[in-house]
Records
---
Amino acid sequence: MDSILTPVLVLICWTLIMWMWMYATRIPAMQKAGINAAKMTEKSEMDVLPKEVRRIADNYNHLHEQPVIFYALIFYASAAGAATQTMVYAAWAYVALRIAHSLIQALWNFIPVRFLVFVLSSLALILMAGICVGRLLGSS
């Protein structure tokens, strides 16, 4: 669990769990709404699905946005020798906060709390980037 790469694996697995959850809720909702995916031409046709179903899909998409920076930082840190213990802790914090963000969005979606969790995860990314820059400049 001390490996800098383990949090990457956990976030990938979490993303796949959200993918399964998305389709487990989306396919029945599409069937109930009479949406034929083979005939869809616009993403907006999914707007008729219940918001609870759309939120899960939205979160799955979010897991392909900011986490890309996380993955890049982790692989940079691993390759550049910047995988300090602080970096590992920050990586685990980021993963825990992204999982919390997913659960908040999918189950409750209270925007102020979700935004706070997003900001905290962003601060973890900033810390990780700072560690990498510090290693690059030789101050770590």
---
Amino acid sequence: MHWRHTFQTRIAGVLALLLLVVVAATYFAVHTATTRAVENQADVQLNTGRQVFERLLDLRGRRLQYGLDWLTADGPFKQAVAGGRTVPILEALGTHGTGVSSSEVVVLGLDDRVMVSTLLVQTRGQLFPYADALRKARRSGQQMLIVAMAGRPYLLVQKDVLGPVPIARVVMGFPMDTQFAHELRSMSNLEVSFLSVQDGHLGQLFTTHPGNWRPSIINLLHGTQVDPEAKIQLFHGQRVLSQVLPLANSGEGDEVRVLLQSPLDHALESFAPLDRQFMGIALAVLLVSLAVALFLARRVSRPLNALVQAAERIGAGDYRTPVRVRSHDEFGLLARAFNAMQSGIALRERQLAHNALHDPLTGLPNRALAMERLGSAISARRSVVLLYVGIENYRIISEGFGPEGVEHMLCEASRCLSSSLLASDTAARIAGSEFLLLLENTEIDCAVARADQLHGALTEPLRIGNDEVRHEVSIGIAAYPADGQQVEELI
């Protein structure tokens, strides 16, 4: 059919949206692949930098060991150590320049007590705290030991002074400070930070980062568990690949950690021109696609908009305005179905609304509507008088005349009540033989008089079939606000 073919042609407009999805997915796929490549490159750089770092530590340890070999083989130094006096040993150290000037030296006796130390924290006669750790390192074949000493990390090497039997032991330590961190960065292209912990106290931080970043670096080094896996983190607004490595191996409970970081944002900058070019192409394709899609969508959406507006009107309760769609396709059929539906809904809604608030037999308002009107009068603080009317011989009439007699009796009673109402009054049937009158803006004396008139009218003889019946009527009166402030209280 022709209308079906036209509708299917309009569906072709969806292809423009699919093109948008394809272009966007392609761009994000390329962007994701680029980001992943940069992350892999940063991971490789971090691994390479870690190897360079480890190699540089090894070279620095060998250099210290080389200088220590020359020192312990020096005749004047050996004589000064054999004498055991501080001043000659320090003079011998001063004349020996091989790596001593940039390092700290501690001379230990055979009892592991300090004879001479260039460190102020190590005094003569004091037991050297890392003597056992150095001895264990030598037995295990380690050439160097990293410890936390004097609030900073040190790389230690050791050598016995022979004369010809061992007479002392010399420990040389290289401080791993900011200068050493910058040297590592220049060789590995990584940001390097050192932190030591000694007896639970944080040592001095040495880092290649700016000084105001120190709290964040200390938190990364000391506040987290050592994880051998590198992690991508947001660090001061920059994405970096970070890895924390433990360095201390003294076994004395002290810690030395190093933080290696490879920035990702710098690597992403090299891909920025390509990303901008691809973004430009993607935007151009998107704009053309959107123009075509909007043109097609406008044609397709006109009847659909009319149906949407009709649905909104129906939802808001407007059932009178018909849907006007001139097409003869599915939208036209749907528009006619909408018109038929809203006509049926309007009819049923009016019937349901009336039945929900009115008594189906007498047509009077029911209890719900009466309570609503009474509540509205109380909320507005309008004076109102309630007349309760009850037909006491309702059961006798029901037993004597059946349902038809009861219906006739109730209809006559409701007619009598309705005829006595003023414009502002309300009469309602609240139960089987119970009625309620709301008399607004009425004084209690007038209400009593109207109750007397109503009692006389209701008790007049009523003919049901060939018989004559009189209602036995009781009437109660309550006034707002004199007799109560709430609806249930007045009832």
